[in-house]
Amino acid sequence: MLGASLLGSLARPLAAQAQTWPAKGPIRLVAVFPPGGSVDQVSRVLAPVLQQALGQTVVVENKGGASGAIGTGEVARAEPDGYTWGVVFDTHGVNPAMQPKIAFDTKRDLTTAVLLGTSPMVISAHADLPLKSWGDVVAGSKGGKSLTYGTIGNGSLGHLAVTMLSRSAGMELVHVPYKGGGPLMQDAIAGHVALSIGSVFVAKPHIDSGRIRPLAVTTAQRHPSLPQVPTLAELGFPNFEAPAWWAVIAPAKTPAAIVQRMNAEINKAIQLPDVAEKLAKQGILVNIGTPAQAQAFVEQQLDTWAKVVRDNGIKAD
């Protein structure tokens, strides 16, 4: 009885806090990458809609660095009162394995409020190369032959996905890391790398111009903007799925009622036609789900990519 009474007394302030949220002051939305990238753009699409829905100022703060780990660490250390949230990219699921000295525990110190959406990565070949299909890539990367492939960086999701793919298929692929999508695409369209892997947002303009040829997407379903491009599962890699993704996180002890309210408001926001259209231009397929579903997705990503990093001895730059 004493234990139940103590738990009840601890829960009452949190319940009261959840009922009055967000009356205390502005809400910080920490975009964990610098201005201009998809995380920044997604944050700025959400902020005004949330501001109107919640009746409180929503301020986007860019805290880039260390593949998003610097901004994520700031969220992890924030007061769990519902006034600090983070918008993260798929590196959130890779960083703990790639940065073993990271200053927070992703599973213990953070919670996922919303999985905003996913997008395939597209594996493409330079248009002038005789790589017309995925079968040509397989044939061109076996028997002592190798092909180069570029990604947005060492330890990026694209790097890990192709590592897992090449290992399962016995392919010889040589990784060429770049510092972001811009430099990657410059070399991809110039033919300095045979293959590239990047998000739909990064790759599609160059696919449309005919300078690179899409060969496969890394999600379980084809993407609406690239309906002619097969999935890797269709090409003989059953259950292969490595999506890019975006999520909203909070400090782990944020009251469940506040997390649920934020989840509900964002789910409503991303279904608004103008918001959905802006996200679609980023190649994002929106996701409607609960905090529990979002957290389960993130934990699965953490476990999947930790194993790939460990099994292949991948190290950070």
Can you tell me about this structure?
With 317 residues, the chain is α/β, with parallel strands linked by helices. The chain has 2 domains: 24-119 and 243-312, D-Maltodextrin-Binding Protein, domain 2 (3-Layer(aba) Sandwich), CATH 3.40.190.150; 121-217, D-Maltodextrin-Binding Protein, domain 2, CATH 3.40.190.10. Helices cover 43% and strands 20% of the residues. It is built from 12 helices and 11 strands. The protein has helices at residues 2-20, 38-54, 69-77, 95-98, 106-109, 134-139, 157-169, 181-190, 200-208, 256-269, 273-281, 291-312, and strands spanning 27-31, 58-62, 84-88, 110-119, 121-126, 147-151, 173-177, 195-199, 212-217, 244-251, 285-286. The strands form 2 sheets. Strands 2-1-3-10-4-11 form a 6-stranded mixed sheet, sandwiched between helices. Strands 7-6-8-5-9 form a 5-stranded mixed sheet, with helices on both faces. Helix 7 packs across helix 12. The chain is globular, with a radius of gyration of 21 Å.
